[in-house]
């Protein structure tokens, strides 16, 4: 089988698994009206499948900052941070993020994916060990591959399993990077951070926490799980993304270890790519300020999340382990998940469809994500629709 | 457990793999995990976790890139068990 035939075979297998399901992936968004509504084809659709947790994508402050940056600095930097692409805005955002997390160092990357790729591959290398949660995001897996370290998975959020694996490593646990996430992207559950910190201290390992989905969502000022758990001085490295609560694109790593700065010289995903555009950096800086001051947005977000979670639970749906901005509905077959997804689309509600092997434990997911801009009426409409569709997925 | 042989590991794998595949085929040391048994990456990782517990070892994911057949997997597990 040659290279192209392999792709043909994969496409055929996908189509055979779910002949009508392919439309759910990469659906064309024809027009975006607000943080909660868009046009798909001829339909005005309620968006319940974005990562726009604080609903800031249309905020006046962010748009104004982006416009101003384009006018003053142009549309792109056309170069790497290591060459001509190291603008004032990049350095200012790094200072602001470091200050936000009360950390000494910060590096801004061009995407959140690259933040994990660049941090992990810069920290770990051949002979080291990376211990990752089984439900870790693909950027973490890919960063591990790029690092050349030995990569070992532990069972999702299972502290006993993690300890077992640390014990097996013996002295190598001191050269081990443990990687977890604040909120996991598929099931929406949170890592048991305090227990994991205890283990990493006992085994003298290093801990990296990815706050991609928890930044802006958890903690009094929105730092993430690290703030909610009061563990800021216990986590060695924190990565995050600008593409969710901050409504831009890009990523970062903060740390109190001065060695983080050295990654600028060894991390290929940092060096060999153009830096984020001035508009992206400017809107992210404005969004970060709104996020820090956004306790009322977080309050609304959690109110919405509890409303949807409790209503779907009462209806009888099988959900992810805990309420939060990601409400995952677990279905036992791709066909049922697609039936539910199609039913929601027929009622002008867009959610994410996740099929095996992308979903954990061989399940299929209809993944809803809530934001602070959703109104109580919108969430009620979603609840009613789910309730109406329940018989179609239990037959 | 420490005296387990490579053959015993291979036999054990053949038994366990039967539970992880929907394909009805006789499983031998030469059986290819992907082309013969259609074991996807997630199923393989779940199988590895079971095996790890059984032998009290950890199998690095990067070591799996050279694993194509049941025999390859048995060899890897044996090697890790010996050095643990």
Main traits of this protein?
heterodimer; A: 395 residues; alpha/beta; Aspartate Aminotransferase, domain 1; Aspartate Aminotransferase, domain 2; seven-stranded mixed beta sheet; four-stranded mixed beta sheet; 14 helices; globular; B: 84 residues; mainly alpha; Non-ribosomal Peptide Synthetase Peptidyl Carrier Protein, Chain A; 52% helix; 0% strand; transferase activity (chain A); Serine palmitoyltransferase (chain A); Aminotransferase_I/II_large (chain A); pyridoxal phosphate binding (chain A); transferase (chain A)
Care to describe what's here?
The complex is a heterodimer of chains A (395) and B (84). Chain A has 395 residues and is of the alpha/beta class. Chain A folds into 2 domains: 137 residues, Aspartate Aminotransferase, domain 1 (Alpha-Beta Complex), CATH 3.90.1150; 233 residues, 3-Layer(aba) Sandwich (Aspartate Aminotransferase, domain 2). Chain A contains 14 helices and 14 strands. The model of chain A has no long low-confidence stretch (mean pLDDT 95). A 7-stranded mixed sheet of chain A has the order 4-10-9-8-7-5-6, sandwiched between helices. A 4-stranded mixed sheet of chain A has the order 1-2-3-12. Chain A has a 3-stranded antiparallel sheet with strand order 11-14-13. By secondary structure, chain B is mainly α. Chain B has a single domain, classed as ACP-like (Non-ribosomal Peptide Synthetase Peptidyl Carrier Protein, Chain A, Orthogonal Bundle), CATH 1.10.1200. Chain B is globular. The mean pLDDT of chain B is 86. The chains are: A alpha/beta (395), B mainly alpha (84).
């Amino acid at each position: 089988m040659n290279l192209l035939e392999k792709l043909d075979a994969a496409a055929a297998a996908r189509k055979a698994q779910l002949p009508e399901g392919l439309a759910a992936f990469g659906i064309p968004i024809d027009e975006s009206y607000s943080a909660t509504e868009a046009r798909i084809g001829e339909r005005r659709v309620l968006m319940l499948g974005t990562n726009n947790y604080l609903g800031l994508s249309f905020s006046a402050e962010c748009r104004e900052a982006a416009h101003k940056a384009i006018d003053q600095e142009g549309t792109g930097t056309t170069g790497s941070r290591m060459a001509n692409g190291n603008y004032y805005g990049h350095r200012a955002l790094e200072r602001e993020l470091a200050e936000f997390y009360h950390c000494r160092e910060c590096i801004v990357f061009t995407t959140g994916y690259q933040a994990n790729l660049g941090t992990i591959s810069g920290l770990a290398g051949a002979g080291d060990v990376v211990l990752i949660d089984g439900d870790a995001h693909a950027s973490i897996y890919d960063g591990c591959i790029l690092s050349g370290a030995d990569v070992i998975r532990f069972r999702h959020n299972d502290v006993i399993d993690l300890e077992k694996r640390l014990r097996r490593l013996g002295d190598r646990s001191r050269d081990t990077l443990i990687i977890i996430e604040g909120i996991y992207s598929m099931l929406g559950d949170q890592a048991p951070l305090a227990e994991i910190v205890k283990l990493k201290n006992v085994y003298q390992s290093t801990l990296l926490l990815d706050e991609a989905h928890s930044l802006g969502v958890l903690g009094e000022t929105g730092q993430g799980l690290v703030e909610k758990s009061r563990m800021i001085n216990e986590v060695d490295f924190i990565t995050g993304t600008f593409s969710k609560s901050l409504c831009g694109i890009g990523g970062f790593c903060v740390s109190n270890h001065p060695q983080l700065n050295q990654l600028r010289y060894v991390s290929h995903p940092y060096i060999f790519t153009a830096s984020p555009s001035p508009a992206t950096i400017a809107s992210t800086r404005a969004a970060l300020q709104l996020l820090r001051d956004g306790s009322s947005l977080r309050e609304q977000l959690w109110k919405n999340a509890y409303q949807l979670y409790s209503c779907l639970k009462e209806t009888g749906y099988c959900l992810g382990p805990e309420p939060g901005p990601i409400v995952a509905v677990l279905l036992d077959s791709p066909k049922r998940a697609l039936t539910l997804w199609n039913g929601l689309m027929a009622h002008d509600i867009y959610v994410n469809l996740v099929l095996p092997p992308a979903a954990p434990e061989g399940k299929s997911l209809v993944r809803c994500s809530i934001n602070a801009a959703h109104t109580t009426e919108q969430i009620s409409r979603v609840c009613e629709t789910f309730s109406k569709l329940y018989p179609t997925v239990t037959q | 457990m420490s005296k387990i042989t490579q053959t015993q590991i291979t036999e054990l794998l053949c038994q366990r793999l039967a539970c992880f595949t929907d394909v009805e085929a006789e499983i031998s040391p030469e059986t290819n995990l992907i082309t013969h048994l259609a074991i996807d990456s997630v199923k393989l990782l779940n199988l590895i976790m079971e095996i790890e517990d059984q032998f009290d070892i950890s199998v690095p994911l990067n070591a799996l890139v050279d694993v194509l057949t049941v025999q390859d997997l048995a060899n890897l597990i044996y090697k890790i068990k010996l050095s643990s």
